[in-house]
C-alpha cells in the first residue's frame, strides 16, 4: 500500500463550517484528488493518507467516516479519537494538479 502526506485541502467556501472538503492534496508534490477518489483508495486499501502533527512528529492517518443519512467524508484519526486536523491544513493552490 502506498502512503501519501496531505498538507492541503479545498472546500467550496474555505471559511464555512458547513462546507465539506472536496479535495485533498500536497503542495510540495503538487497533487490533489477528490475526496471521492481518496475514499475509494482508502476503502480498497490501495492507498493511505495522513497529515503530520509537527509538534509530536507523528502521522495522523485519514479515515472514512460513515454516518447514517450523510455522505461519507474524510477525517483524521489519532490517539483512538476522530479529530479535525484535516481542516487545519492550508489551501491547495492552482499548481496542485488533479490526479
Characterization of this structure:
- A hairpin with a 4-residue loop joins β3 (23-26) and β4 (31-34).
- The model has no long low-confidence stretch (mean pLDDT 91).
- The relative contact order is 0.28.
- The longest helix has 9 residues, at 35-43.
- Helices cover 9% and strands 43% of the residues.
- With 99 residues, the chain is mainly beta.
- The strands form 2 sheets. It has a 5-stranded mixed sheet.
Concise summary:
With 99 residues, the chain is mainly beta. It is 9% helix and 43% strand. The chain has one domain.
Which term fits the overall shape? globular
**What percentage of the residues does DSSP assign to strands (E)?**
35-45%
Number of domains: 1
User: Main beta sheet, described?
Assistant: 5 strands, mixed
Q: Provide the spatial order of strands within the biggest beta sheet.
A: 1-5-6-7-8
What's the helix-strand series? EEEEHEEEEEE
Class by alpha and beta content? mainly beta
Q: Percent range for helical residues?
A: under 10%
Q: Termini, distance in Å?
A: 17 Å
Total strand segments: 10
Gyration radius, in Å: 13 Å
Uncertain runs: none
Residue-averaged pLDDT: 91
Number of helices: 1
Amino acid at each position: 500500500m502506498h502512503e501519501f502526506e496531505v498538507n492541503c485541502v479545498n472546500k467550496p467556501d474555505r471559511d464555512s463550517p458547513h462546507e465539506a472538503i472536496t479535495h485533498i492534496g500536497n503542495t510540495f508534490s503538487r497533487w490533489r484528488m477528490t475526496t471521492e477518489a481518496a475514499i475509494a483508495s482508502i476503502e480498497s486499501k490501495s492507498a493511505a493518507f495522513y497529515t503530520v502533527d509537527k509538534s509530536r512528529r507523528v502521522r495522523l492517518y485519514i479515515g472514512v467516516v460513515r454516518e447514517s443519512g450523510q455522505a461519507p467524508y474524510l477525517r483524521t484519526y489519532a490517539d483512538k479519537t476522530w479529530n479535525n486536523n484535516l481542516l487545519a491544513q492550508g489551501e491547495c493552490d492552482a499548481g496542485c494538479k488533479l490526479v
